[in-house]
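Consider a concrete sample entry:
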Amino acid sequence: MLKYLIAWVPMVFIAIANGLMREKFFAKRLKELNAHHASTATLVILFGIYMLIIFRIWKPNSAQQAFHIGLFWLVLTVVFEFLFGHYVAGHSWGRLLNDYNIFEGRVWIIVLIWITLAPYVIYKLQN
């Protein structure tokens, strides 16, 4: 799983670049919630493209391993999001949790679901 830990690291930079794109382009043209939705969609697409490339280089051995990779990446992402978001970016726990509030139209959870399931889906598509 070490190679999949290494493969996860660029996803942090993809997400940061996507966040910058949200602030520079979407936020100036859309309402905040719409910018959040657009940013979520672009991140899902970017992660999908990245994972397609990674799994051509480092193909999982089985569907079960692909699913475990997704779970591993989910844990890494959530831990990073909360630790970095709170201790480095200085966001409150409430602000960080707000992105999980689907009742307020926040759809970040779609990214987390995609991170979890995409390795399995891409494995199945490639086999």
Notes: The chain has one domain: 2-126. The radius of gyration is 15 Å.
